[in-house]
Amino acid sequence: MLISTAIEAIAFDPVYYAEMNPDVKAAYGDDALELYRHFATFAIADERKTSPVFDISYYLENNTDLKAAFGTDLNLAYNHFKTSGYKETRFTNTPANLGNDFIAKIDMSYASLSLGLEGDNVVSVDRGSASLWHFTRQTDGTYTIQNTANKKVLDVYAGGKTNGANVQTYTSNDTQAQKWYIFENVNGTY
């Protein structure tokens, strides 16, 4: 892949980047390599929208310690994110507010699948047999997401913070492993 690190993949989504930056799209079309080169050279300093879950200006403005250390230098703020900010689970964009209490299916936008259960493990299932999930917004802007069948909540096993960590349902215990932020994609999905 052309993105140099998994962390950089959070900050750069080529489809989103092209859609949010019409001048860049006009120059490079949908060529992911050229879009990435433009991102790597210009995007941060130009304060461009680069990913649905990452906004460098938001990152700097909403982390007062970074603002005090870096002033308005977006490149220093981005380097901080790449080296340590992502590990600190700092906000990188404004989470969506979809309401305080609702029930929905969780579909995968890239496949005709939804989230379901196999025991307590969360698995991909045919959309017709998808689970229903009860979303409850918390005062900190996170959501707890409870399965309506087994009454357990979405939980990252052992509080894992790496890509590929197992997601399961587990008895509610109000830990960070059970708090979820929702972000809007460029196509209007979440």
Supply the key terms.
190 residues, alpha+beta, 3-stranded antiparallel β-sheet, 7 helices
Q: What is the element string, with H for helices and E for strands?
A: HHHHHHHEEEEEEEE
Q: How many distinct beta strands?
A: 8
Q: Runs with pLDDT <50, length 5+?
A: none
Instruction: Tell me the β content.
Output: 15-25%
Structure notes:
The chain has 190 residues and is α+β, with helices and mostly antiparallel strands. Helix content is 30%, strand content 19%. It has helices at residues 6-11, 14-20, 22-28, 32-43, 56-61, 64-70, 74-85; strands spanning 101-104, 107-108, 113-118, 121-126, 133-137, 143-147, 153-156, 167-170. The strands form 3 sheets. The chain has a 3-stranded antiparallel sheet with strand order 1-5-6, with no helix packed on it. A 3-stranded antiparallel sheet has the order 2-3-4, with no helix packed on it. Strand 5 and strand 6 form a beta hairpin. Helix 2 packs across helix 3 and helix 2 crosses helix 4 (32-43). The longest helix has 12 residues, at 32-43. The radius of gyration is 18 Å and the shape is globular. The relative contact order is 0.12.
Element layout with pairings:
Blueprint: H1 6-11, H2 14-20, H3 22-28, H4 32-43, H5 56-61, H6 64-70, H7 74-85, E1 101-104, E2 107-108, E3 113-118, E4 121-126, E5 133-137, E6 143-147, E7 153-156, E8 167-170
Antiparallel strand pairs: 1-5, 2-3, 3-4, 5-6, 7-8
Outline:
The chain is an alpha+beta fold and 190 residues long. Helix content is 30%, strand content 19%.
